[in-house]
Amino acid sequence: MKRILLILFVLTFYSCAVSIGNSAPIETNAKDAVKNGNSVYNSNANTMVAFNKILPKKRAAFEMLNKTIIMPAIQRVNPSVYNSLTFLSPDDQNEDGTYTFLYIANPYLENQSYDILSMLIEVHGRTRAEEYFKLWLDCFSEEQDTLLFR
Questions:
Q1: How far, in whole angstroms, is CA 95 from its chain's centroid?
Q2: What structural domains and CATH numbers belong to the chain?
Q3: Contacts 24+ apart (CB under 8 A), 5-9
Q4: d(Cα 87, Cα 9) in Å, to the nearest integer?
Q5: What DSSP string runs through the chain?
Q6: What is the pLDDT at residue 3?
Q7: Please, what are the averages of pLDDT over each run of 10 residues along the chain (150 residues)?
Q8: C-alpha span between 135 and 147 (Å, rounded)
Q9: What's the pLDDT at 145?
Q10: What pLDDT score does 95 carry?
Q11: Burial zone of 85 (CB within 10 Å; 0-12 exposed, 13-18 middle, 19+ buried)
Q12: What pLDDT, on a 0 to 100 scale, did the predictor assign at position 149?
């Protein structure tokens, strides 16, 4: 039930989030574009939400890794993926003391790779990329959970 409420909250307030990318318009075919009030979206596109439950002691490290290493690597390797992503940081802890950070890919580019390790390897080389990736993984209290929406 909490997950459903969290998803509804995220989708309701998603328009208040700050995009990581440069907010360049996504190219769509006019026949696929749907207008709903002030929103224009591609009716054939998906949205991916990745839930990251982070240990309380690792919150600052996770945020720093994302802002200074992971997101710049994604931007350098694949600007399209970077521009589709929004990274949301929580204000408050969950009941269990963890923090839930979100990656939202809107649109989720099905023909593109969102694999963080491969992008880190391309930018930093295998050895350093694996060190960064281990630091990133050590922040999690449980495995990342992703949901795909149409």
A1: 22
A2: 2-19+45-149 (3.30.70.100)
A3: 6/51, 6/100, 7/49, 7/147
A4: 15
A5: -HHHHHHHHHHHHGGGSPPSS--PPPP--TTTEEEETTEEEETT-EEEEEEEEE-GGGHHHHHHHIIIIIHHHHHHH-HHHHHHEEEE--SS--TTS-EEEEEEEEEE-TTS---HHHHHHHHH-HHHHHHHHHHHHTTBSS--EEEEE-
A6: 57
A7: 51 44 44 45 75 97 96 96 95 96 94 95 97 97 92
A8: 24
A9: 93
A10: 96
A11: buried
A12: 87
CA geometry: angle 129, 131, 137, nearest 5 deg? 100
Token pair for 2: 């909490």
Query: How far, rounded to the nearest angstrom, does the alpha carbon of residue 9 sit from its chain's CA centroid?
Result: 16
Q: What's the confidence (pLDDT) of residue 17?
A: 46
User: CA–CA separation, 148 vs 150, rounded Å?
Assistant: 7
Amino acid at 59: R
